[in-house]
Write a structure and sequence with these properties.
By secondary structure, the chain is an all-alpha fold. The chain contains 17 helices and three strands. It has a three-stranded antiparallel β-sheet.
């Protein structure tokens, strides 16, 4: 049967599936809002802890509320010793995303009140997941390198503590603040693939650990969370800023994508990319390591110029283009970039899980159950004629060929 869907309809592109008060994207204006607040204001005037409170409770905190919430996050950073022991036994080549998926799911077993699915308890779980996700990533970064695990500190901000646990050195205030801004910028972005995955699982009334694990699984795919890692791989491949233009032309001549350029939602400048570009420039001046900013800027300019010439339209940078070299200058290994995305986006996922479970105003629970366009065999209303096993003709044994291929590899 022929599909009734056009390509533009696949993947629910542009199809509203639920109400939300968490995030608004105005792609044609290059604007992003968390709970009604412009990302420009939040990134320049708030902290990740304050933005987390906003996303979780739908209000900006008072001084006292922020102090209490910050203390709660810091108090929940430690992992159970048995979880740490399990992490030490994992193969060192395990990806950080697979470690996150594994450990977040394990944490459900350490929740004695798991059957309590109230909003208050789930808010507490969300705070614990935000705190522990950073610890998991930093701890795995140490374990896989054969380095001693560093205990979290309660006197550091969320951003500073992560960098401290990963490197073993307390970051300078400017670097900690830059990383804090990065976390704010990645904390939420409406119904992207991972957020939708979390909401689908939450709609079944599964617990928040299962929903977040599903989101992590979605983020681990290269079409979603791995773009900034691939941007850094490109920068390391080019190395010299003067080679950026020829590299871009060769990539486009081969019909390949320029990672970090273009976005499915924004038709003008991604506001997060604009903030990160300025940060990258500041970081280059502060560290006297200008190569990566200059090279990234060269890729942006060449890509936009070539796209206008070839396609007649602009190709704008997205959040991944400049975040790649920012993390690199901070000393973060590129293969941890996707899991650092999760360190931030965990907050958005939790907010969406709570919204799915406890909508405002309350509505009847509804399990996600989209329809599909069947394109398989159809033999009329009675179905295809069933032929008994002994009467079927021999054909290609697909299962056997799969086994043989596996044995040869």
């Amino acid at each position: 049967m022929e599909s009734q869907f056009e390509t533009k309809d696949r993947g629910l592109r542009g199809v509203p599936v639920a109400n939300t008060s968490i995030c608004l994207i105005k792609g044609e204006l290059g604007k992003l809002f968390y709970r009604g607040y412009d990302i420009q204001d939040l990134a320049t005037r708030s902290t990740f802890e304050e933005v987390s409170y906003l996303l979780l409770f739908d209000k900006m905190p008072s001084n006292k509320e922020l102090e209490e919430f910050t203390a709660i996050l810091a108090s929940k950073r430690k992992l159970p010793n048995t979880v740490l022991d399990h992490m030490k036994r994992l193969p060192q080549q395990t990806s950080s995303m697979d470690v996150l998926i594994c450990i977040i799911a394990m944490l459900a077993g350490y929740d004695p009140g798991l059957r309590d699915d109230s909003k208050e308890i789930n808010s507490q779980r969300a705070a614990g997941l935000v705190a522990k996700t950073a610890t998991i990533v930093a701890t795995w970064g140490r374990i896989r390198e054969g380095l001693p695990i560093i205990e979290p500190r309660v006197d550091l901000s969320h951003a500073a503590n992560f960098l401290y646990m990963l490197s073993g050195e307390e970051p300078d205030p400017a670097t900690a603040r830059d990383f804090d801004i990065c976390l704010i910028l990645h904390a939420e972005h409406s119904f992207n693939a991972s957020t939708f995955a979390a909401r689908v699982v939450a709609s079944s009334r599964a617990h928040i650990y299962a929903a977040v694990s599903a989101a992590l699984g979605s983020l681990s795919g290269e079409l979603h969370g791995g773009a900034n890692t691939r941007v850094m791989e490109s920068l390391l491949e080019i190395m010299e800023p003067k080679e950026a233009e020829s590299w871009v032309k060769k990539k486009l001549d081969r019909g390949e994508r320029i990672m970090g350029m273009g976005h499915a939602v924004y038709t003008t400048m991604d506001p997060r990319a604009e903030i990160l570009r300025l940060m990258s420039e500041r970081l280059a001046q502060r560290t006297e390591e200008s190569r990566w900013f200059t090279l990234t800027q060269g890729i942006e300019k060449a890509s936009r110029r070539e796209f206008i010439q070839r396609k007649g339209r602009d190709l704008i940078p997205n959040v991944d283009l400049y975040s790649a070299s920012i993390y690199y200058v901070m000393g973060i290994p590129p293969d941890l970039y996707t899991s650092i995305f999760a360190v931030s986006r965990i907050m958005g996922w939790c907010a969406h899980v709570l919204e799915e479970k406890f909508p405002n105003p309350p509505v009847k629970p509804m399990l996600y159950r989209p329809s599909s366009d069947y394109t398989g065999k159809f033999c009329g209303l009675v179905g295809c004629k069933y032929v008994p096993l002994e009467e079927r003709q021999e054909g290609l044994n697909v299962y056997s060929s799969i086994l043989n291929d596996g044995a040869r590899s």
